UniProtKB/TrEMBL annotation:
Coiled-coil regions, chain positions: none
Entry keywords, A to Z: Signal
Pfam families xref list: Peptidase_M23
Keyword tRNA processing: no
Organism: Christiangramia sediminicola
Domain of life: Bacteria
Ranges of residues in domain M23ase beta-sheet core: 93-192
The keyword Signal appears for this protein: yes
Name under which the protein is recorded: Peptidoglycan DD-metalloendopeptidase family protein
Annotated SUPFAM superfamilies: Duplicated hybrid motif (SSF51261)
InterPro entries listed in its UniProt record: Cell_wall_metabolism_enzyme (IPR050570), Dup_hybrid_motif (IPR011055), M23ase_b-sheet_dom (IPR016047)
Length: 225
């Protein structure tokens, strides 16, 4: 049987946007936010304002308007939040794809699907408002997650509502409502939601990594940024 990763890579033939508006493929640049990025050592990562400035300067230097990256990336920036950095487990490996664009940017569905669930995960350092879509394509069911949205994005949502590829489903939130981050989209693909609704781990500990990477392949297999 075809693996889930192979299935995803064959769903699209080229760049498939998840950010609406005038962004094209050439507007994106890769950013490394792992522990290996020495520029982060100079940054007060506990400050969402400082991080926003860092992202803006990075994009200006690269002559780009959107940054992406983060899949299977070991990050120290989660140390600021007890949600990840606690006595039970140090969760610090990011398993989604982040796309860094300004607050209130339009978020669009890359595929046909329907709203599975949604909720405001309002812990400090969490997703904030979150939407999960369910997709049934070529006799295969899977899910996509959109985190760090605006609270307005959840108004009037109904589970089961159908969405089309390219349709606006949300807007990005600012740091006051997105879990206290510089504005960005956390985009993640899950083959199995494991019974969860409106939420699914996007940062995991090393001991669980193999399971999560199998269930949550690289979103760039689909988006091809």
């Amino acid at each position: 049987m075809q693996s889930f990763s192979e299935f995803l890579s064959e769903l699209t033939t080229g760049f498939t946007p998840v950010i609406g508006g005038d962004y094209s493929h050439k507007d994106y640049t890769y950013i490394d936010l792992s522990e290996n990025n020495r520029d982060l050592l100079k940054l007060e990562v506990a400050s969402s304002e400082a991080f926003s400035i860092f992202i803006s300067e990075f994009l200006r230097n690269r002559e780009a308007t959107a940054a992406y990256g983060g899949y299977n990336e070991l990050r120290t920036l989660y140390n600021r939040s007890q949600l990840f950095n606690n006595s039970e487990a140090n969760r610090n490996i990011h398993i989604g794809l982040d796309v860094w664009v300004p607050e209130f940017s339009e978020i669009i569905s890359p595929l046909d699907g329907k709203i599975h669930s949604f909720q405001d995960n309002d812990n400090f350092g969490d997703y904030g408002p979150t939407i999960i879509l369910e997709h049934n394509l070529h006799n295969r069911k899977f899910y996509t997650l959109y985190g760090h949205l605006s609270r307005k994005s959840l108004d009037g949502l109904i589970a089961g509502k159908e969405v089309k590829a390219g349709e606006k489903i949300a807007e990005l939130g600012d740091f006051n409502e997105n879990g206290d981050y510089a504005p960005h989209l956390h985009f993640q693909i899950m083959e199995d939601l494991q019974g969860k609704t409106g939420d699914y781990p996007g940062v995991v500990k090393k001991e669980d990594l193999d399971m999560y990477l199998k269930n949550c392949p690289d979103p760039n297999l689909l988006l091809k940024i």
